[in-house]
Specification:
7-stranded mixed sheet; elongated; 14 helices; 12 strands; homodimer; 2 domains; 4-stranded parallel sheet; alpha/beta
Chain lengths: 413, 413
């Protein structure tokens, strides 16, 4: 067996379990006797460009295990999306250090980076195996049953809505929370897992997969509020009307306010509480409901320390190790995928290798079977899909029962 | 012993452990052989007014234990602040049902309600013992070392900032999170407990106990960002300038935007993401930093299911039981207080009875000893004060170490 030198990097938004994949890969690599070194690149592809590497070949395993249990990319991440020129520079560094295998933990942009890099390597005749290890809380990677990182973020969203619903039941009114998801509604849909009993919230769930106009939204809220005296609503940041105009743009225009745009000219959906605030203003103004509160889950759903699905942690560890074995044993190039074995009862996950092209720069959205006909909720099929992924430690809530005491005076209004 | 009939209610904002106090009181009452009944009033004083009671005298203990472990007022809560007329009506209901003891779990407004009710009872010659059981995540009750509910909310804030800081280290920029606290900065200050190592965030903490102007804020952020390449900031929703004008009003005026006011004409600080958004806009516009993100913890810090300090849960249980014993054994009226026994090493809490007037409608703010001289951080004394309250299960984070690999090419910029 010829000596191997592995380089691992982490790209895109951090997750609660992305370091499980890092440590899974490092430890799996260390089991190969022909391993010369395993390096980590600081801040993703940027670290490759700048030769900013740390040597993890002999790093203490206890330290690595504690890193694995810590959320957010331990190597640092980047939002850089390398083009061919960028990849060519990376390749120079990879050659200079004698790297034989490159592993990139990230989303669909990261898999596209591996794809471009592999093309450049092939063209220049440098022998390099490139593996993409999936992660993203958006759950929007093609060819995966789900992606590592999503279940833990989904668990956060479910626990947040379970708590918010109990609060809303104690002090009734309308509560609207905006959850991440520009194109894919999986994370917002996870709010459905907060429900334990009849009439538990969220009572309405709006996803970017279905067009939404504000009048329809208000009619839905009004109906629930009239029925229950309260209403809890989950809204994806990316909800838009039939012509694709984001709801936040429509609402801002009505109110004469501007919206923020990012460097690419896209409306900035994250990092601002504007959508939740605008929806609350509409509900107050047009439905005449007084107690209306809005939240935007923002970075909490991405980074909260201490909310991890054990199933997610295990699978994130696995995909790192699987990638290394595919690379070092089989010289494979491609993207590791998480699949569900539906031939056996219960929940069993398995791993596969798919071509980089199957994942790169593509976006999976929610299946039709996961969204109800009215477009304001998920289906039982979605709940069945997500429940096993949340793992073993989902807190349960109990509503107080108790026999009503007979009144002795007339009710006073 | 004459027969007793206990009525318990929950008022104000729910907490993670307010049901521990409810169940603590119910179970303690059931140990008294002369107990005739223990009732819960639905939605606080409003349930008393409307005779909306549930009988908890024989309720299954296993059910009650699961309710105790569930956040948010299980009996329902209210924002009603009864005046004398309201209390007089409550008293009629209390008389009609032969209630001998009234326990109200709540903040300083709730203790004021008990005070007024007791005055009315004394005036009308009805024998009634009234106990106030403390709870509030703001930690702003006089005569208490801390209040039940605060440690769990503080734990949420610490875990949120620990995660946000790891995220910020992975993708550097400026992160600003707005935390609850109109007058008292305790909950915002709890962000300091997120720090585990040197240069961990939050790097700046702004509290309503100290005046803040925007130029000073920007200069602080600039200095941290220049030193570390990143900056994590905790801001109380109630921060204001030397003349008491809330920062949110100043910023909104600058930008030509309005602020929302509640029914009492107070600027609405909660339930809106405006302050975080405005601060981020200022940082981008005036410091020229590109990656700036803001969050508002909103209802998550008040209601998240699954973030409880075990010390808090135990003490919340205790204050409920202590109130019942004070009421039933000693016929006491007053407010139960949580104290810290500073005569022994380690952390030991104890309980005392204080007059309702000592707590009612008063607000405790952070001691000077807890705030640094520059007014942009807490002191080690505050960290020492809070650490034991967070309990045993505070997740730890581990930053990746690893020997840097020598560069083989010149760093490319």
């Amino acid at each position: 067996m010829s000596p191997v030198k592995l380089l691992i990097a982490q790209g895109g938004g951090p997750t609660a379990v992305i370091n499980q994949s890092l440590v899974g890969a490092v430890l799996a690599a260390r089991a190969f006797p022909n391993l010369q070194a395993v390096y980590g690149a600081r801040h993703g592809v940027r670290g490759v460009l700048h030769e900013d590497f740390v040597d993890l070949t002999g790093e203490d395993i206890n330290h690595l295990e504690r890193v694995a249990a810590t959320p957010a990319s331990a190597l640092g991440s980047t939002r850089d999306k390398p083009d061919e020129a960028y990849c060519l520079q990376m390749l120079e560094v990879i050659k200079a250090h004698g790297i034989t295998h490159f592993l990139y933990i990230g989303g669909n942009d990261s898999s596209d980076t591996v794809r471009i890099l592999m093309e450049q390597a092939a063209r220049s005749g440098h022998e390099l195996a490139g593996l993409h290890i999936p992660k993203t809380i958006d759950n929007d990677l093609m060819g995966n049953d789900h992606t590592p990182g999503f279940p833990s973020a989904a668990k956060f969203v479910a626990q947040a809505f379970a708590g918010a619903d109990l609060y809303n039941a104690a002090l009734p009114g309308v509560y609207v929370a905006v959850v991440m998801g520009r194109h894919a509604g999986f994370l917002t849909a996870a709010s459905a897992l907060a429900r334990q009993g009849v009439d538990d919230g969220p009572h309405l769930i709006y996803l970017p997969e279905r067009a939404l106009d504000i009048d329809r939204f208000l009619a839905d809220v009004k109906a629930v509020h009239e029925r229950l005296g309260r209403c809890v609503v989950a809204v994806s940041e990316g909800v838009h009307d039939t012509s694709g105009v984001p709801l936040i743009s429509q609402l801002a225009q009505r109110r004469g306010a501007g919206v923020e745009r990012d460097a690419h000219g896209n409306v900035q959906l994250s990092g601002t509480g504007a959508l939740a605030d605008l929806l609350c203003e509409e509900i107050k103004a047009r439905l005449g409901i007084k107690r209306v509160r809005g939240d935007t889950f923002g970075y909490l759903q991405r980074s909260f320390l201490g909310c991890v699905s054990d199933v997610d942690a295990r699978e994130a560890r696995d995909v790192g190790a699987v990638a290394v074995r595919l690379a070092l044993k089989h010289g494979a190039t491609g993207s590791v995928a998480v699949r569900r074995d539906s031939t056996v009862p219960g929940y069993v996950s398995e791993y596969a290798l798919q071509p980089l092209e199957a994942v790169a720069a593509k976006t999976r959205v929610m299946e039709d079977a996961f969204i109800n006909a009215a477009g304001n909720d998920v289906t039982p099929a979605f709940v069945d899909y997500l429940r096993p992924l949340l793992g073993s430690a989902l807190p349960q809530a109990e509503r107080l029962r108790g026999r009503a005491v007979a009144k002795r005076l007339k009710p006073q209004e």
